[in-house]
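Title: Comparing notes on inverse folding

I've been comparing how different people in this forum approach sequence design from structure. To keep things fair, I'm posting one structure and asking everyone to reply with a full sequence. Here's the target:
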């Protein structure tokens, strides 16, 4: 039994776009487009400060006396953890959508990151 199949060839890019990942902006493309840094943590700081003040006022665990934390303190700590998880998820998503946008242009891409210096 023989089956005819069309062979898909790789699409050749029409142009090349370079992306420079930076500190002040998320990325600068070689075509001049600047992708702004979304600053997810700075947006969440107000809610984070409020929740951490609430947790500081509550009765947390004490290793010295063996005191167990109150239920309200535990719920507040869970809210803080959820807020941090939301920021982490937004950061992950924030790295994926610009690369998808660049690849949708149908161009070959090259990425350059800022050098990391050790003090």
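Reply #1:
Here's my take.
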């Amino acid at each position: 039994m023989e089956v005819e199949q069309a062979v898909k060839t790789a699409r050749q890019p029409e142009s090349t776009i370079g992306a420079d990942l930076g500190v002040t902006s998320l990325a600068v493309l070689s075509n001049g487009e600047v992708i702004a840094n979304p600053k997810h943590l700075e947006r969440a700081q107000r809610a984070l400060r409020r929740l951490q003040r609430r947790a500081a006022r509550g009765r947390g665990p004490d290793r010295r006396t063996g005191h167990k934390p109150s239920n309200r303190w535990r719920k507040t700590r869970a809210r803080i953890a959820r807020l941090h998880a939301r920021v982490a998820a937004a950061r992950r998503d924030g790295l994926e959508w610009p690369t998808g946008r660049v690849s949708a242009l149908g161009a070959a891409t090259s990425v350059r990151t800022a050098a990391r210096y050790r003090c």
